[in-house]
From TrEMBL:
Keywords: Methyltransferase, Transferase. Residues 40-114 form the Methyltransferase domain. GO terms for biological process: methylation. It comes from Segatella copri. The keyword Zinc-finger does not apply. The keyword DNA repair does not apply. GO terms for molecular function: methyltransferase activity. Pfam families: Methyltransf_25. InterPro entries: Methyltransf_25, SAM-dependent_MTases_sf. This is Methyltransferase domain-containing protein.
Length: 180
């Protein structure tokens, strides 16, 4: 996938999501997050939203994102995380979640991961908080930023089979996996 479109809009990305509805969603998601103690893998960390809504020790954190521009925005805002982010594609080849206590992927980020990567995450012993796009949802990011990326839809049935029915819930346009 080509993420250079995100690089082009990275400098204004945060301003696109400072409207009241986005801020309310961020607060609500922050309240849904489980306690994050121990090491954290933030998949699709973008400009650092997780570090805004949860207090995270930079030494316990690793963020990955395929957009260099988004990561530059992140580290400009939060210099303490400069050595704690990695620019890498969402291909699942180098995604090793076995060494983390927590795996977080907010606002659709896991929808860009391959089935192989989702299967690997489902088998990790880490606590997981993953927000998948619901089927047929067209991400608002695409509309606000005039970008379009290929992503995968994981049905509620598939997510329940991988993570357990009791660990999958719905929130607005997302299916949330919240489990150990």
């Amino acid at each position: 996938m080509n993420y250079s479109q995100y690089d082009k809009i990275a400098s204004k990305y945060d301003t696109l999501f400072r409207d009241e509805m986005s801020l309310v969603e961020n607060r609500e998601v922050g309240q849904m997050l489980p306690p994050l103690s121990g090491s954290i893998l933030d998949i699709g960390c973008g400009t650092g939203l997780l570090t805004e809504i949860a207090k995270i020790d930079p030494q316990e954190y690793l963020g990955i994102d395929p957009s260099k521009g988004m990561l530059e925005q992140f580290t400009n805002k939060y210099p303490a995380y400069k050595d704690r982010v990695v620019c890498e594609p969402f291909d699942g080849k180098s995604l090793d979640c076995r060494n983390f206590d927590n795996i977080v992927a907010l606002f659709g980020s896991p929808s860009y991961l391959s089935r192989y990567a989702i299967l690997a995450i489902s088998q990790c012993k880490a606590r997981k908080f993953l927000m998948f796009y619901k089927e047929k949802y067209h991400p608002v990011t695409y509309e606000k930023c005039d970008v379009e990326f290929r992503h995968f839809f994981y049905s509620k049935k598939v997510l329940c089979s991988l993570f357990g029915e009791e660990n999958v819930s719905e929130y607005h346009n997302y299916l949330i996996v919240n489990c150990v």
